[in-house]
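Let's practice the habit of predicting before peeking. Look at the sequence and jot down your guess about where helices and strands might fall. Then scroll down.
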Amino acid sequence: MHNFHQDFTFTIRNDYAFKKLFASPEGRPVLREFLSLVLKIPKPELAEITIENPFTLQAYSNTKQGILDLKLALQNGKKINLEMQNQSQSFFPERILFYWANRYTENFAIGENYSTLKKCINITLINDSFEYANTVHSLYKLINVDDSREFDDLLELHFLNLSKIPASNPNEISLTKLSELEKWLLFIRTNNSEVRSMLAKENTTLDYANQTMNRFFSNKEERLQYEAAFRYECDRASLIAESHNKGVKQGIQQEKNTIAKNLLALNIPIEDIVSATGLSEETILSL
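Done guessing? Here is the structure:
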């Protein structure tokens, strides 16, 4: 019997919960299963996974919240970035490529042989509109645009669009219509404990993940970290929205000023410019 309120909803999309499930020692079986499903990598190849920025409660408390990427390394040297993005960004492609390039060349020393560079894979879960593809799972590589021949396999960018996953109402979900990957993504996306329990009955690893998350959320200290991460995400979203609104207002003001300048150049009467732009006569004359 868990001691947290059953009516308190939580989601694995939360910064703290995401790291707790995928980056803590007890979450290793969940991470291994998820990577195998997304990347179609045989599980033996995932037997040894090194988390280069391991998760601990103390480490999380001392670092900046909102940084969701997990840096993973496989036994064969392949590197994997795993991250959760709850909001899209106008500079999203640039950011993804920067992260990939930085990880690809990480620890590469001057004078070192290029052959030591290892494949780098980026997996991004997006809980927002994704304008670059209409599918749940999209994969980008370096290819020849004429014949689709691959240049090299050193780059892989995987995007998992959670917004394409169906509603989280347990009465509206037909598990038989969902692929295994879609079930996992629904498990991550939903904030409904009934939905997670439904999915857990279908898959032993998801059942383990569900038990792990329920234990985590029954711990007061960890629940406080979850709530702090939730507040951080809300504050961040509010700041982004406020900045956007300010930008729109500034753009409108700038456009009015430009129109007024053009009308002045055409010797249009001041009163007509005031009527057309809504600017005061004093503002127009100062342009």
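How did you do? The longest helix spans residues 220-265.
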